[in-house]
Every structure is written in C-alpha cells, then in structure tokens.
Write a structure and sequence with these properties.
Helix content: 40-55%
Strand order of the largest sheet: 1-2-3-4
Shape: elongated
Number of helices: 5
Order of helices and strands: HHEHHEEEEEEH
Number of strands: 7
Largest sheet: 4 strands, antiparallel
Strand content: 15-25%
C-alpha cells in the first residue's frame, strides 16, 4: 500500500515537472493563449508616478560630484601634504592633510543634510492610503520608502527644505509644481 502511494507521488512529481517545462516554454504558452486554453495574466497594478522633482537629475549629479571630490581629496590630501615642502614638520603636514579631508567631508555632509529630504519621485494610486517616495542617500543612490498617509505630520525642524515629516524622515516637495491637489492636501498639512 505504501509502495502504491509512493508511485502515485512520483508520478505526480513527474507530471508537475512536465507541465512546468511546457509552461516555461514560450511557444507552448503562445499556442495555449491563441487557442483560449489559458487567460493572459492580468498586468500588475502599479502606483502611478504622480510627481517628479524638477531638480532630481541635477541633484543626483551634484551629489555624485560631491562624493567623488570627497574620495579624491581624502586620497590626495596626504599625498600632497607629505610629498611637498620637505622643510615643514610632519605634524604640520598631518594637520594640513586632515583639514583638507575634513573640509571635503563637511561639504559633502552639508549637501546631504540640506538636500537629503528632496523627493525625486512620488508614486501614488488614487484612493490608496500608501505613497512610495524616492529620495537619494549620501552616495547618490536611490532610496525608496513607503509611507502611510496617516503617518504624515507637519515638520518639526528648522531645515530649509522640508515640507512634511513621516516615519522619522523629512521630505521636501515643490508645492507649486505638485500636480495632484488632493494628494497635496494630505501630504502638506497646513501648520
């Protein structure tokens, strides 16, 4: 009795493997679609892009430039400091190199602090309570976060580029360029 169950199980596995091979091949799928044996898969409903920041591309290039200059100055500052002016002491050379690296790091960090909340892209499905927001990190990589509209609050900071606060992050959108007044009222609560 157990042997018969094992044979049935093995037969079912082989049958499933054959069906998988048939479905995995494109000609078979096209043939089945033509004959009406199978329905075409429904397209996945993605939220539509409601807003794209006007300065998104420029900001990404500036952040890449800033981080690249930080890397090159961090690599080049010690070389410049120690291979020039042999009469200057090692302590002075070290302080010059570290000042150059610190200045570059501070400008990169300052740019990220100032422009970090800038929303590159905002996707929303009308009627939905969730919004997908794309920003940039310090390395100019895209960061996508999903927030609930109920989590949106007025900002509680003195940062210059902030229009709303949600889930521990500040965000900035250009209100005069925002195409959906309905969503804008939900995202930018009047203070």
């Amino acid at each position: 009795m157990a042997a018969a169950a094992l044979r049935r199980q093995g037969f079912a596995l082989r049958l499933a493997r054959l069906e998988h091979q048939r479905w995995a091949s494109q000609p078979a799928l096209r043939e089945d679609l033509k004959q009406g044996k199978v329905a075409a898969p429904a397209p996945a409903s993605k939220p539509e892009v409601v807003y794209e920041g006007a300065m998104a591309g420029t900001l990404r290039r500036v952040k890449i430039l800033s981080f690249t200059s930080f890397v090159f100055s961090s690599l080049g500052a010690p070389v410049l400091a120690f291979h020039t002016y042999p009469e200057v002491s090692v302590v002075a050379k070290s302080s010059i190199a570290s000042m150059m690296m610190m200045l570059s790091a501070l400008t990169t960090a300052g740019l990220h602090w100032y422009a970090g909340p800038y929303v590159r892209k905002l996707s929303w499905k009308p009627g939905s309570k969730e919004v997908a927001i794309e920003t940039l990190d310090v390395l100019a990589r895209r960061v996508e976060r999903k927030i609930q509209l109920s989590d949106v609050h007025p900002p509680d900071t003195n940062k210059p580029l902030v229009t709303f606060f949600a889930r521990g992050n500040h965000y900035y959108i250009e209100e005069d360029r925002f195409p959906s007044p309905e969503l804008l009222k939900k995202l930018v609560p009047r203070r």
